[in-house]
Here is the input.
Amino acid sequence: MRTTTTKMGSISSMIILIILAFCFQTAIAEGPPSIQTDKEIYNYGEGIKVHFYNAPGYARDWICIVPVGSSDTEAGDYKYIPEGVGQGVLIFKSPRPGQYEARAYYYYSPFRYTVSARYRFTIEGEGYGYDDGSGEVYGSGSDYVDVPTAYGEPYYFAPPIFVTYPYDYFTYELVGGFVDIVFWRGGHRYRHERWYDNGRRVSAADMRSSKRYNRVSGSEFSRHREQLRQNHNISHPDSYYGLKSRSNRQMQRSPQQVEQRPQWGQRQTRQVQQQPRRVEQRSQSGQRQSRRSGSQHQQDEQQHQHR
Here is the structure.
């Protein structure tokens, strides 16, 4: 009897602990929703990481970034939270410098904009830029660059899939005939993720049949190119990214520059060309004077003979 009583007591204790643990987790999950950026002040061009907590996990839950003072119906730059995910991080591209607010919309339904959580942050500076030496800077934020997809090359911008963990950069690698996205951290492979496009895994045949690109903003491209050069000693020419070279841009601008701002030597040539005309005019006037003097001389001789 004592043994049976002891067993029943231990089972009851385990059941109570399980119930308490379940209630504790439920209380955490049902806590107030909140969001927060990883920094309060960003430099223009940096990725904005918005951490969200206690999301209900519905497919129509979303987070957006809007200027401070915008109405609650302003969608701005928005991303949907993956279904079933209650906690994680979404990465946004940097807007132009100013005061901004991250907003979470949970339990969303059409024509109903109720902000569940919000968090303010600031973007400062004039942004990243890549100056090629010709005075033109890539990275104004409004332009975009198509970066080719290549196996094994590091990429320092947002990947084509959703992730919730930090990393330094990612690469594309071929595994078993399919393309995986490998995330690196601290110089080592950190995570492997399968690459899906429209619900279908990207294969090596897909990579060969059509050339794929990563379309990124100018600010992301500038930072990516600088990180490649500094961390991996990789430097591609402008033509690799489909950008016009400096010489072509100068050749395109040179005819207008010559017409609008002629050189001093060209003006001097025009002056030299005008000088013969002046000489000809002077010579013609000299001939007219000589003719007049000749006719006057004949008249004087005739008068002298009559005398």
